[in-house]
Amino acid sequence: MVLNSTNASEFTNMTGPNALKMDVNIVMLGTDNVGKSALTVRFLTRRFIGEYGDIESIYSHNVIVDGREIAFGIWDSPYSQERLGGSVTQEKQMQWADGFVLVYSICDRASFNAVARLIQHVKATKDYAGGEKVPIVIVGNKRDLHHRRTVTSEEGRLLALTTDCQFYEVSAAENYHGVLMVFHGLVDRIREARSAVKKPAGIKGIVKSMSAVFTRKRTDSL
Ligand SMILES: Nc1nc2c(ncn2[C@@H]2O[C@H](COP(=O)(O)OP(=O)(O)OP(=O)(O)O)[C@@H](O)[C@H]2O)c(=O)[nH]1
Ligand SMILES: [Mg+2]
Question: What is the catalytic activity of this protein (predicted)?
Fold first, then answer.
C-alpha cells in the first residue's frame, strides 16, 4: 500500500544496471463486486482469499516480464468510494495511470454495460499524447460461474474489437495464469503506446526521413 506519485511514463535508469527497468501504473475500474480486488490480490500474491473489504490501495510490485524488470503500481479502489470520491479522485487516477484494467462479471450484465461506458470515458479523458490509443484491457471475470453467465464471450470479444482494446475472460477464484496474462498483456500495450509516442521524433525525425528520401537511403532502419 505504497503511494508512488512519480511520473511513470519513462524508462528509468537507462544507462545503469537496471537499464531494462520500466515503471507501469495501472488503475482497476469497474462496478462493485466484479472482482477488481480479487484480480489485484491474485496477481500480487497468487492467492484468492474470498473477501477483500472496502480498502482503497495503491500497491507496488516488482516482477520480471519477458526479461525486463517491471515496477508495477496498481490502484484498486472500491466502486462505492469511486462514486463518493467523485471527479477529483477520478481525475487523479486518469493522470497517474499508464493503463487500465476494466473489469466486469460475466454474471452481471449491468457491469458489462458499465465497462462499455467506462471505455468511452477513459478514451475521452485520457488524451494519450494526441490520440495514441490508450492501453486498456477488458476483463470478463468469474468465468468459473459459467452456469450463471449472462454475458457471452462473443459479446466481450466484440466490445474489445470495436473499441480497440484487449480482452480476456478469467476466473480470479480458480486460475492464476489467466490473471497473469491480463497484467502482462497490459504491459505489452503500454510498451507499444510508448514506442508509438517516441517514433515521430518531431522536426528531427522529419528532417531525417526527408534526407533519407532525397539521398535514396534505405528508410527501413529509421
Ligand atoms: N466465483 C467467483 N467469485 C469471485 C471471483 N472474483 C471475485 N469473486 C468474489 O466476488 C466478490 C467481490 O469481489 P471483489 O474483488 O471484492 O470485487 P470488487 O470489484 O473489488 O468490488 P468493490 O471493491 O466493492 O468495488 C467477492 O466475494 C469475491 O470472493 C471469481 O473469479 N469467481
Ligand atoms: Mg474492491
Answer: GTP + H2O = GDP + phosphate + H(+)
- Whole domain around residue 144: which residue ranges? 8-221
Taking CA atoms only, the protein residue closest to ligand 1 atom 29 is 50
Which ligand is located closest to the Cα atom of residue 57?
2
Residue 171 identity (one-letter amino acid):
S
133 located within any domain = yes
CA-40 nearest atom, ligand 1: 15
Q: What is the pLDDT of residue 103?
A: 98
Q: Grid coordinates standing for 111?
A: 457491469
Residue 12 has pLDDT above 80, yes or no: no
- Cα torsion 146, 148, 150, 151 to 10°: value is -20
> Has residue 3 got a pLDDT over 80?
no
- Enter the pTM of the model: 0.83
Can you tell me the distance from the alpha carbon of 9 to that of 19, in angstroms, rounded to the nearest whole number? 15
Angle at 92 between CA 122 and CA 54, to 5 degrees: 90
